Structures
1.
Amino acid sequence: MKTLQELVRPNIWSLSPYTSARDEYQGKDAKVFLDANENPYNDPVNRYPDPLQRDLKQRISAIKGVPADTIFFGNGSDEAIDLMYRIFCTPGKDNAVAIEPTYGMYGVCADINDVEYRRVLMDENFQPNADRILAATDSNTKLVFFCTPNNPSGNNIDHKVIDKVLDSFDGIVIVDEAYIDFAGVPSYLKQLADRPNLIVLQTFSKAWGMAGIRLGMAFAQPEIIGIMNKVKYPYNVNLLTQKRAMEEVMQYDRVQGWVESILKERTRLMAEFAKLDCCIKVYPSDANFFLARVKDAAATYNYLVDQGIIVRNRSKIALCGNSLRVTIGTVVENNALLEALSKY
Ligand code: PMP
């Protein structure tokens, strides 16, 4: 691996970050806070939140079994994706490589940051080839993106491929595990301590049921987390989000129950969907959604919209011709989908 200094943009490496009032005084014991130009009225939202979300990091550190200084929280994991480009990729010069098809924000953030985005097509079973990924890299490649389970295909990416790229590529490898709680395979968090070039993304938006509060996680070596903290907005995770997330992590056992219900429903819904007249193929899923090839995706999608049921038409995406992506809902919601399609 290149050194972190070689990988980070020179202007970011030498950046003096903004220091907020809450960075300067971190204690909670003071009686009078006259340091941050806050309004003294309207407790508690009159106060700026902890810029480094320390309480939440302590809890997540215990749940995930990783040190607190390897954790970054962002406004969704989308914030962490954007930060990868802003930290590592010099606009107009550096590039990123990713499996294709995959989560659209890697490409969109590359475009926003004027970074070349190289798509390496997977095979028809949505598995990538490590040699083809490595061949797509050059001396200006700073990032390689994997997403496992992958969106929109739903399957786990072969760990042997990811491991080979982690072993051979001299830049940063991002493994996006937004759907890991549904995957039935170990998380790359286990490899964090031994892999200086690994960044794992996870999110509160899926298994944790908190897409609305916008909270994502990145895990990496403390040196990388330190740089992310330098570049992020000072108060990137708002007070209400931190508070609500703290309440939710205290009842973490609920998440396991939700995951079990969703997995049970996934098995049932995929089996029933495969029997529908409109369905050509249901792809294997390790996530809380599945991809299905249908006879006419646009017509099926429009019919479902008329019935008040919204799925995602992914037909324009590589390898996903005439394919719909269906999120696993409650038993009632899934039955509504099946009933509507049985009459289609
Ligand atoms: N990664 C993947 C693979 C996703 O599918 C999504 C959301 N659909 C995200 C990241 C972003 O999640 P968040 O809500 O944490 O920004």
2.
Amino acid sequence: MRIVLGVGGGIAAYKVASLLRLFTEAGHNVTVIPTEASTRFVGTATWEALSGNPVSNSVFDDVHQVNHVRLGHEADLIVIAPATADLLAKAATGQAGDLLTNTLLMARGPVLFAPAMHTEMWQHAATRANVETLRSRGAAVLEPASGRLTGADSGPGRLPEPEAIFNAAMALVQGQSDFQLPLAGRTVTISAGGTREPLDPVRFLGNRSSGKQGVALAVAARNAGATVRLLAAHMDVAPPAGVEVVPVETALQLREAALAAAADSDVVIMSAAVADFRPAAVSDTKIKKRDDRDDPVITLVRNPDILHELVELRNSAAPGGRQQLIVGFAAETGDSDGDVLAHARAKLQRKGCDLLVVNHVGTDKVFGQDTNSVVILARSGSEPQEASGTKAEVSAAIIGRISGELNSVSPRA
Ligand code: CTP
């Protein structure tokens, strides 16, 4: 496919280098047209080297090739990222002062704008009108992500992550009218890995969770356009790019981080393996073996049930109206009291969360593996949904289900 990638003059231009890589690695021929302002953020050498094509934004370069007509005509897809307020205005008013705007006027195929700007600019009546105009003419304008902007401020206006723009572009080319990212504007908090409860400065009680499922969920949520916060307990895998990572060690630290993160989250997914108990006392010094004393006995105390607390917090904050979706995980084995699903249903009731993702565990199953098989139970009582495959596939199914559940709820202010 021939793709024209127009780069606007915003700080998010640096993320577009990764988007370009995604396009070229998928086998597409990409011509990058950076605005003059954008070359103050990322130079043309970067675009030429990564795309393998010449780069210019002047209608007077290679005039014999009539680029100002040809590029737009030949393009199977035009993607503008970051689409600044200025570029949206120029496109909406049909200006043709440079090669990029000429190309937009010549476009015959799908055009995708991925806006990025400060919240005030995005919400300004002028920008709203420009976006409406472009949409009414058939252009696809993505909703920006919400979250941390260039300075200390945060709100809607962040460029979605490169994988998310890539997915939206492919959906658009395949003619899907629903190219919008299902979690655009949503904030998703995900706990991952396993907590470690210290006994002394060198020892802890831990568990076998690798964090792979939580990380795969973070990737799927990010690729669906969400702003993702990963509360990372001990993990064997690295956190993905494009998500905010909050490292935690113990269940109590995770509780604090989760309750704080929940305040502005549309979705909270508790996929971490949280220790139900911690040692009652933590020794300041290493516990030594001594022949003149009995072997030490470890006394354990209960950790708070974070998932349950999150549900209570949500319910007390918004009586009557469900504004936040809370998802728990359950690692279950069947026993004489009931099979896996019976235990899971009881847990769903006990915890009060909206969805419960049920793993059937045994020593050879789930922990550290790359594949998984789960059943998603809903408190609403709808049919259990099965999902299996790689942890990425299972995560995509879980995030798809969450997106569906959120459809009827508008993003948190
Ligand atoms: N969880 C939590 N806080 C805890 C323990 C668990 O938030 N102290 C969360 C997990 O992240 C998971 C869900 O609760 O989403 C289920 O955890 P699990 O350990 O399987 O359930 P338990 O409540 O511990 O029940 P049981 O040990 O009886 O199976």
